[in-house]
Amino acid sequence: MTKSTLENLSTPQLYKGIALFTPGGDLIYCIDPHKQGRWHSHLCAALQEILDLSEPPHFLAPCYTATVDHWLDPKTQQVKIFAEASLAVLKHQAVLNAIFNTGDLVWQPAPWQEGLCDRLVLSTYRSSFPQLWEDHDLIVNLDLSQQAPKYHPPVMTVQKTQIKTYVLRLFVAGHSANTERILKNLHELLERSLGYPYTMKVIDVLTNPEQAEIDQVSATPTLVKVWPLPIRRMVGDLDNAGKILQMLGAIEQV
């Protein structure tokens, strides 16, 4: 995994950091000053959203994980660091030290998980999660300081251009002729004008009201841009191509 310059991060003195890699070399991580949890499920859920996976890739833990703990020794009142990484990601120590601001720390190999981290076992997931075996030059800091995790842009400049993948959700009420027309027009507009990869999930609020509540959707049709940040919504007038592209950030706002 060859990456270029990372920005210096301001990290708290005492914290727990968790990083989750993909077989292709992408990385998502979080820094938790409260040390309240392991957060692996949050990282997996964020990867699912960003890379449009069929389900959260929980099989990546513990085989592609790294953890660092800055803790205070009660006897000496000195901050001490314990850091370990699975064998598959020990080669990424330079990146781990950069995102966690740990200098030239040498990471310890995590205990081998017999039966979980076997290459043959992991390879069985490749056909279902092909995106995880590709390198998207993706490094994402998942901010868990708030109750609802938020996705933040990569904190580094990658060797190529920064990945720009759109994650969209279209909320509709039933599958009517009008819904089909909106879908057709949106697809043609995005294919013609977006210029970047995108995924768009169609969510029927009549059968999935929970997702509508999560995304704060109260009327249909509503188009939600989940990624990249900031999250934006457009309600009702989905025939206005210019407004849609402005909302997506694909053209300059005027």
Which helices and strands appear, and what pairs or packs with what?
Layout: E1 15-21, E2 27-32, H1 40-51, E3 65-72, E4 79-85, H2 93-100, E5 108-109, H3 119-123, E6 139-143, E7 150-151, E8 166-172, H4 177-193, E9 198-204, H5 209-214, E10 222-227, E11 232-235, H6 241-248
Parallel strand pairs: 2-6, 4-5, 8-9
Antiparallel strand pairs: 1-2, 1-3, 3-4, 6-7, 8-10, 10-11
Description:
By secondary structure, this protein is α/β, with parallel strands linked by helices. The chain has six helices and eleven strands. The chain has helices at 40-51, 93-100, 119-123, 177-193, 209-214, 241-248; strands at residues 15-21, 27-32, 65-72, 79-85, 108-109, 139-143, 150-151, 166-172, 198-204, 222-227, 232-235. The protein has a seven-stranded mixed β-sheet, with helices on both faces. A four-stranded mixed β-sheet has the order 9-8-10-11. 27% of the residues are buried.
Task: Specify the overall morphology.
Answer: elongated
Strand order of the largest sheet: 5-4-3-1-2-6-7
Largest β sheet strand count, sense and barrel closure: 7 strands, mixed
How big is the Rg? 21 Å
> Which residues sit in consecutive blocks of at least 5 with pLDDT less than 50?
1-11, 146-163
Please count the helical segments.
6
- Helix and strand succession? EEHEEHEHEEEHEHEEH
Helix content: 10-25%
Would you tell me the structural class of the helices and strands? alpha/beta
State which percent range the strand residues make up. Answer: 15-25%
* Mean pLDDT figure: 76
Overall strand count: 11
